[in-house]
Amino acid sequence: MTEEFVHEYQPLLIKEIKDKKRIKFPNKSLLLAVCAACIGGTFQYGYNISVINAPTTYVQSFINETWRERYQTNISEDVLTLLWSTIVSIFTVGGFIGVTIGGTLSVKLGRKGTLLTNNIFALTAALLIGLSYPTGLFELLIIGRFFTGINAGIGICVQPLYLGEIAPTSLRGAMGMGTSIFITIGILTGQVIGLKELLGKEEYWPILLSTTCIPAILQLLILPWFPESPRFLLIDRGDDEGCKKALKQLHCADYDCEWEDIEKERNNLVDFQAKKPWELLSDRSIRWQLLTIILLNAAQQLNGINAIYFYADYLFKQAGIPADTRPYVTVGTGACECITALTCGMLIECLGRKVLITGGYTLMSICCVLFTLTLTFQDASPVIPYLSMACVFAFILSFGLGPGGVTNILTTELFTQTSRPAAYMIAGSVNWLSFFFIGLVFPFIVIGLQQYCFLVFLVICSLMAVYIYLVIPETKNKTFLEIQNEFQTSKSRKDRSADGVGTTLLSTSI
C-alpha cells in the first residue's frame, strides 16, 4: 500500500523537491543581463524626463538669440513658450509612437534585438541635439527630443518583456523591479548631472542634453554578451537548443524547472500566433486582464505623482529653503524615489505584488487628505510648511513602494507569450496618453481647484486600491499559465454566480 501511494504521488513529490531547488538569489550573469537591458531602456526614459529641467532658461535664451539673428527682432513671449513646451512635450508624442511599434519589433527582431536596434534613436537624438547650438537650428532640438521619446517608448515597452522572460518564476518580481529601479536611477542621474557643479552651466547645455548617447553606447557594448529571451527562443522561434543554452547562461545549473514551465506554455500555445492589439481588445477570454492593465497604467500617471512634483518647488519655497538650495532638495526627492524602488525590489518576493500595490495606493490616498489639509492651512503655523514637505516625501515613498514598481510587473505576469507584446503596446499607449493628458489638463485643474485638486487624486487612488483588492489575484511564485487559469477560474465563478442569480429571479417571478 505504501509503495502504491509513493508510485501514485511520485510526480507531486518530484515537483516538491524541484520547488525546493528553485533559485532564491539571482546569479551574476542574470543580474548583469538585467543591468545591460535597463541601462539603455527605462534608464533613458527617467533620464530624459529629468535632464531637460536644468537647462530651461539657457535653451530659451538660445531660441531667443537664434530668432533675433534670423528675423532681427526678439521672439514674443507666447511664441517662446509655445516652442519650449513643444520641445518638452514632443517627448511624449515620440514615446507614444515608440510604444505602438515596440511590441511588433519585439516579435520580429526578438526582445534583445529590439533593445539593441532601439539605440539608433538615442544616438541620432544625441547627434541632432549636439548640432543644434553650433548650427543655430533650434528645430533640431525638437526633432532630437522626438527621437529620445521614440527610444524611451520602445524601451519601456520591450525591456519589461525581456526582464520578465529571462527571470526564473521565483525571482520574476525582483528582476522585473529593474524597470522602475532604473527609471528612478535615470531621474536621479539627470537631476545630479544638471547641477551647476557638473553640466548645469549655460555653456554646457548642448553637452548635457547630448549625454543620452552614453547609456546607448554602454548597452551596445554590454548587451550582446547576453542571450535572447529563452521564452522567445522556444515559443516564438522553436529554437530548443538556443533556449537551453540561454537558460544555462542565465540560471546556471538550476534551469530544469524553467525549461519545463516554458515547454508547458509552448504546448498550450501550439498553432497560436502572436496577437495584434486589436485582436487582444476583441478577445473576451482575457478582458479582465486587459481592463486591469489599462486601469493600472492610466492610474500610474493620473494618481497625483506629477502634481506632487509640481507643488514641490512651491512647498520648498514656503518652508524657507533658499532658491539656490532647492535643486539639491529636488535631488533628494529623486533619491527618495530611487530608495523606495530598491526597497520594493527587496520586498516584492516576500510580501507579494498585491500587498505592495494595494498598500501603496492606500497610503497615497491618506497622503492626499493630509496634503489638502496642510495646503489649506499653510499659513496657520510655521510648522505647517514642513508638514507639507513631509507629505511630499511620504507620497513619493508610497508611489515608489507600490504603483511605481509593481505596475509593469503585473503587465508582464497577467498575459501568456502570444498576448504579452500586444498587451505592452496597449498598456504603454494608455500610459503615454495619460502622461500627455495630465500634462495638458493639470494646470487647469490647479487653477480651478487650487489645493483641493488633490481630492481628485484621492478618488483615483482610493478606487484603484479597492479594484486591486477585489479583482487582481496574487501572482507571486506562479507561472504565467497558473495566473491565466486563476483569472479564468474566477471568471467562471462569476458567470456561474450570475447564472444562479438569474435562475433564482426567473423562478421567483414565475
TrEMBL record:
The chain crosses the membrane at residues 30-47, 82-103, 115-134, 140-162, 174-193, 205-226, 355-377, 383-410, 422-446, 452-472. It is found in: Membrane. It comes from the Eukaryota. The gene is slc2a11b. GO terms for biological process: D-glucose import; dehydroascorbic acid transport. Coiled coil: none annotated. InterPro entries: GLUT (IPR045263), MFS_dom (IPR020846), MFS_sugar_transport-like (IPR005828), MFS_trans_sf (IPR036259), Sugar/inositol_transpt (IPR003663), Sugar_transporter_CS (IPR005829). Its main location: membrane. Residues 34-476 form the Major facilitator superfamily (MFS) profile domain. Keywords: Membrane, Transmembrane, Transmembrane helix, Transport. It holds the Pfam family Sugar_tr. CDD domains: MFS_GLUT_Class2 (cd17432). Belongs to the major facilitator superfamily. Sugar transporter (TC 2.A.1.1) family. GO terms for molecular function: D-glucose transmembrane transporter activity. It is a multi-pass membrane protein. One of its GO terms (cellular component) is plasma membrane. This is Major facilitator superfamily (MFS) profile domain-containing protein.
